[in-house]
Amino acid sequence: MSQDKSYLLKKLHSLTGIIPLGIFIIWHFIMNSFLLQGAEKFDGAVELLHSVPYLWLLELVIAIGFLFHAAYGLYMVFTARYNLRRYSYKRNWAFVMQRVTAVLILIFLLIHVYLLKFSGLEITFASLTQVFDIGSLTILAIGTLAAMFHFANGISTFLISWGWTVGGKSQKYFGYVSLVIFFVLVLVGVNILRMFG
């Protein structure tokens, strides 16, 4: 692959991690947080979401962004040079974990999307509480943790790759900011998952 094409694809990969995927993750958490207000509020939020005009177009944009991000991400997973034994720095660990979580998320999302979009399951509070047993809740928790790390770390790398945090000091600072984002999202995610337990 030529250097110019690789540069452009890496930029596009980084961008699709934030827009549309990052926005979708936040929106997904907002919608799922209605679980905290009970079955009626959650079911109403799902009904409202399904009544959005051009929902199919939003889903198409998200799907295209995801497919590109996943395909190029897998290419990066399998072509990356891993050197943790030689360089055991925090950023190098984050580099490796970004790729590990990418694979976990891909597997998780294939199951998650099939179950909630294509299996014919009606998405209601009652149906979800019947479907989610301890095994599927564990998978959901692992997938959520992986996605939150991947997204939070992706924000940090997005800022670096787009030249917004060029110095070591700003990269370190936003590394901590992304860590805070990770923990906040994990707290929200765990609180939502608690509703099924």
What do you see in this structure?
The chain has 197 residues and is mostly helical. It has a single domain (6-194), classed as Fumarate reductase/succinate dehydrogenase, transmembrane subunit (3 helical TM bundles of succinate and fumarate reductases), CATH 1.20.1300. It is 79% helix and 0% strand. It is globular. The N and C termini lie far apart (48 Å).
The shape is globular
Describe the largest sheet: none
Helix content percent band: over 70%
CATH superfamily: Fumarate reductase/succinate dehydrogenase, transmembrane subunit
Helix-strand string: HHHHHHHH
Taking all Cα atoms into account, the compactness measure Rg is 18 Å
Examine the coordinates and then state which fold CATH places here, giving the name of the CATH topology: 3 helical TM bundles of succinate and fumarate reductases
Overall tally of structural domains: 1
- Given helix and strand content, the structural type is mainly alpha
- Beta-strand percent range: under 5%
Give the number of DSSP strands: 0
The residue-averaged pLDDT reads 91
Q: Provide a count of the helices.
A: 8
* Terminal-residue CA separation: 48 Å
- Second CATH tier, the architecture: Up-down Bundle
